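User: Can you fold this complex?
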Amino acid sequence: MTIYITGHKNPDTDSICAAITYANLKKKTGKTENIIPARTGDINDETRFILKKFKTKPPQLLKDAEGKKVILVDHTEPKQRPENMDKGEIVEVLDHHNINFVQATPIPFHIEPVGSTCTIIADMYFKNSIELKKEIAGLLLAAIISDTVIFKSPITTEKDIGMAQKLAPIADIEDTEAFGIEIFNAKSGWDEKTIQEIISTDYKEYDLGGKKIGIAQVETVDTTQLKQRKQEFLKVMDSMREQRDLDTILVLLTDIIKEDCIAFIRGNSTENIAKTFKKEIKDNQMYLPGVLSRKKQIVPPLEKAMK
Ligand code: MG
Ligand code: MG
Ligand code: MG
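Assistant: Here's the predicted assembly.
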């Protein structure tokens, strides 16, 4: 029997590294099934850099989940699952996000409120004394650093920091902070990208109070250049709203150094959103100091706004 392990659509580093490292763990613990790490979309620049650094091949592309057995990592949200997942079978879940999941049959379902899926997986390796090669430790560490924005994001927990400290020597990383900057630099180079490419790098859709909301996050070390392309952003956001039938679309320009966020907003729920965040939205723009996490600081208040 073949089982695929995959993260969310528009995979980020945590989704890709979790699929690879969890498949490796399952193999090492002697599971008989044929476990295949997979992805549902293209690898982004940051993840490409990390895979290259730790000499690992990208997981296999899973275009369609129809008739397939799948382990979901790094998401539960139906809109983020592989294509036709409803015509396949979810056999397990391992995640660190808000839970949007209904299933008639019981399955192993592991959720922990930590900074990254790879924190949970690293813990499993250590607890079960499973051999951790440099490459696997490196992928786990990189995903933790990426998801927690070098431990600055409010989603960061003691456990994330603890796991990173244990992984770093095995991965041969002396300075995790410096490695973090390297990771985020691999992702920049936004200037050479089209707005569509920038938005789709880290774009997620949510069903919030029956409304379809699209949220893109652009993590950068400097928002100056991106801000200047606002009119282009708004144009692309409008066409995405139409094409994807979105109630509202947000693009978050997150400055990981200044630790703040500029949000561009288009859609029907703009006023509700302004009210919920107690902010003024002027020229389709809202300023959110101290906001680094879509998961913890954006999605929960939005869910409230949509009710
Ligand atoms: Mg993710
Ligand atoms: Mg994650
Ligand atoms: Mg992220």
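The pocket of magnesium ion (ligand 2) is lined by residues 14, 74, 96, 116-117, 147 (CB under 6 Å). The chain has two domains: 2-184, 191-305.
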